[in-house]
Amino acid sequence: MQPPIPDYLADILDHVRDDDGGQSADYIPELRDADPNRLALALCTTSGHVYSAGDGDVEFTIQSISKPFIYALALQELGAEAVDEVVGLEPSGEAFNELSLDDNDNRPVNPMINAGAIAVNQLINGEDSSVDDRVEKIRDLLSRLAGRDLSIDEELCNSEILSADRNLSIAHMLRSHGIIHDEAHDAVLSYTRQCSILVTTRDLAVMSATLATGGVQPVTGERLLTSEVCRRTLAVMSSSGMYDGAGRWMAGVGIPAKSGVAGGLIGTLPGQLGIATFSPRLDSSGNSVRGVKIFERLSREMGLHLMAADHHSVPGVRSITRDGDSTVIRLQGTINFTAAENILHELGSHKLGGSELLLDVSRVTSFNRMGRRMVKEGLRRLREKGFTCAIYDPEGVVTDLEFSDGTYADTVEALT
Ligand code: GLN
Q1: For residue range 293-326, what is the model confidence (pLDDT) as tens digits?
Q2: Which domains, and CATH codes, for the chain?
Q3: Ligand 1 geometric centre to CA of 14 (Å)
Q4: 342 CA → ligand 1 middle, Å
Q5: Distance (Å, whole) CA 61 – CA 156
Q6: What are the DSSP E strand ranges found in 251-316?
Q7: Tens-place pLDDT, residues 347-383
């Protein structure tokens, strides 16, 4: 079968292809002269299946899309507490290259604006690292995230350095407040080399999907980040990833995202998908015009808005049936707090006949910790009331059958 998804993606691109709104970045020749008509869209699922349409294999510089990943690397290397000492977590509502620090503690307000990203870059590989070793560490992580060896666009990087006055003044400001310790020039060189790494839209979709899985690169299977690090990174992307357009973005699209000045844009749906687009013309916040349009459409048509209530509605209890002396309770879906509450509510209000209870979890896709704890506690209490209780769990989704009192749930091998 020819999968229908690439055709759908190509169709989405056709809808925005003729929109020539916005302006390519023009502060260096390499970005000014890049073909503004390039257009690409790629998706990578948490199972590692990649789909792309348009110019999905054309390379461009990652720019600010590196920021969430290097923030994740710093969290992973140093822990959240040490990273919090140099950068905050609040949205700034300011332009990406604003010379701004928090009034109270002089830290950059978040890691997605340049001030925050330069401070975070300096944490990588320790305070005494050379620029080369630090950048190599960064290039190595981004390469593993992409699943291929990424290179640096040296010419573009040189041009950036020649016009880096603004980032240099940010670095001087950070150094004057003791947030960074390297020479301002070295700090900007290290950050600019980070931004000059070449990626494709396909690479970005896979990198973004690695945040969606909670840190396992879904194509190579390599664990690169912890799930706590990914969760925090996505939280910061959702509040600050689109700079001063972040609030409007979250309302309209509802996907944690990050944009870059070369025209790339990523979005990450935890547990589901990494999405990436490429189109160089930018709006006044520095976000890709057609990229934003594509995301708006995908969010609407594919039902991806994270604040939408519709994907959380499967009740935990599928059925309760009586069979001779036993009552069979069939569960289904993902058992989180709300599903478990539904199960306990049903168990409490249903008149349970017979003396035997069988809990069939063969249709449960997963339990979270709270769901598991609540369901087991419900069973334990029913057992205390005199019922014989057993679990039918052919796939082992419950994983841990110990009750809160140290006893264990009985299991059955088959449903009779
Ligand atoms: N290299 C660019 C800068 O620091 C990256 C900014 C961006 O992508 N928004 O100015």
Answers
A1: 999 999 999 999 998 876 666 788 999 998 888 8
A2: 5-302 (3.40.710.10), 314-411 (3.30.750.24)
A3: 28
A4: 48
A5: 9
A6: 257-259, 264-269, 273-278
A7: 887 777 788 999 999 999 999 999 999 999 999 999 9
